[in-house]
Write a structure and sequence with these properties.
The protein is of the alpha+beta class. The chain has a 5-stranded antiparallel sheet. Helices cover 39% and strands 28% of the residues.
Amino acid sequence: MDISPAARRVIFGLIVCALVGLGAYLIGPVARGAGSRAGQHGSPSTSAVQRASGTAGAAAVGQPDIYQWLPFTPAGLAAAASVVVKFGDAFGSYSYTEKAAAYVAPMVPIASTQLVNQIAAAYSVPGVAATRLNGKQVAVGTATIGSIRAFGPSSLTFLVQVSQQLTDASGGSQQTTAYAITVTGSGTTWQVTDVELASAGNS
């Protein structure tokens, strides 16, 4: 039976609403469990991944399995979220004593080479590096996933809050910045390929 365009839009809207709710449930433990850096980023707990993997099977009788309409599995979503949290922690953490290579080292296994090189280049801009060094700046970042902005057959874009505990020669402060972080891949294998300010797009 053919479905009208209007009906398709309604069905898509329902799927997106269900995805947002389920995504918040699945990635919540991962997002809340994000650790701080200095080269020691933690991975999400095994129980969080197991909960994500078992969600479809644990659905109440009569509840639709929305993953039949989506290009990823519960385990795939949990794996993607884990990569995003690790990347966000590393992206928001730095020390004036670190060269660019040390700063991006935690990102190398979980981000594309092109993106890592771009981040290293931005970190090394002379004016920025001098300010960081002269001010003895240190930041410890903690990433928290807020929602899924977009998804496709091989990509997911998460909205992520990166909170930084900042210290410098004049004292300490805290700031939080919203980013849109995109991972590409399939199954449980993902890598970060783009990061933008959430207000700039990246959808």
